[in-house]
């Protein structure tokens, strides 16, 4: 556990004054009776970043996000949004954020268009018609705009929620599981939409269990379990900090049976795993790329190498490694 907590890092500011953080939580706590759902959480979300907020079921993600947007009241600690303390009451601040909550309440008796038009009025959107059309078109819902929200599928509701969150052109998006229930096409549409909105300057805090999506889009990732931040870094940074070396995938043509112990004996090799007799995964020590050294050795042995490529540690592997130990420790507590 100690090692995992040591992995936590704060953003590093290279010089000058601290930039304005878009979200800052300070020692944020939520208790339900004696149960601690969120435990002294310090989150720092930087302007313009996509921050993936990950954790196993029950880790405290939704509770944290709901405290940030002012729906759930913290037991203790502070939330700052766009440089100001926020408890959900300031309409001026609310207007600058777009939120997709896990179980957002929708107005089943309105059509999708009426629903968005209602929120456009609430948030005083200057030109609601073009804004609604453009958003619905981007998620393929424009042809279904006259369908009652009550008749929408879960995936369609998710997309409509996202349109509602973007309608008033907020600087900050806070999205709790925005792609749950979406088909692969819908997931891709939402990914493209979020990346595009981020390029336009929107900061995005997003929780999701679909790690491949976070891996493709997030600049930084925070992993929580038991309400505590276990680690925070870029996807590559997290993998590197696990300190398990580099992995090289090698394909040969008929390697001799004596080759494996020889490769295992090389000073820079930690481990050899055989996916098949001619397809190996070689883990090397340290952060250096050892492909040249390995290729030189294999050539010296007269082994014909068909291909060699570095294998990145996926976010899923990193997530499982980090959270497994933490979850076990919590269960044993
Ligand atoms: P998931 O990925 O399953 O959505 P999560 O990380 O979003 O999980 P939370 O919903 O924040 O987790 O819940 C964190 C913990 O707090 C869970 O153990 C949950 O049972 C507990 N919890 C949340 N809301 C309440 C409540 N109103 N009363 C009691 N316990 C609660």
What does this structure look like?
This protein is α/β, with parallel strands linked by helices and 333 residues long. The protein folds into 2 domains: 2-96 and 170-240, Rossmann fold (3-Layer(aba) Sandwich); 245-312, Alpha-Beta Plaits. It is 35% helix and 26% strand. It contains 12 helices and 15 strands. The radius of gyration is 24 Å and the shape is elongated. Bound molecules: adenosine-5'-triphosphate. The site of adenosine-5'-triphosphate has 11 residues, from strand 2 and helix 2.
Question: Care to give the gist of this entry?
Answer:
By secondary structure, the chain is α/β, with parallel strands linked by helices. It has helices at residues 2-6, 61-68, 91-94, 112-122, 128-138, 154-166, 184-199, 211-217, 235-241, 259-264, 291-300, 315-332, and strands at 23-32, 35-41, 44-45, 50-54, 76-81, 84-85, 97-100, 172-176, 203-207, 220-225, 228-233, 246-253, 269-276, 279-284, 304-311. The strands form three sheets. It has a six-stranded mixed beta sheet, with helices on both faces. Strands 1, 2, 3, 5 and 6 form a five-stranded antiparallel beta sheet that branches. Strands 13-14-12-15 form a four-stranded antiparallel beta sheet.
Q: What keywords describe this structure?
A:
333 residues, alpha/beta, Rossmann fold, Alpha-Beta Plaits, 5-stranded antiparallel β-sheet, 12 helices, disordered N terminus, binds adenosine-5'-triphosphate
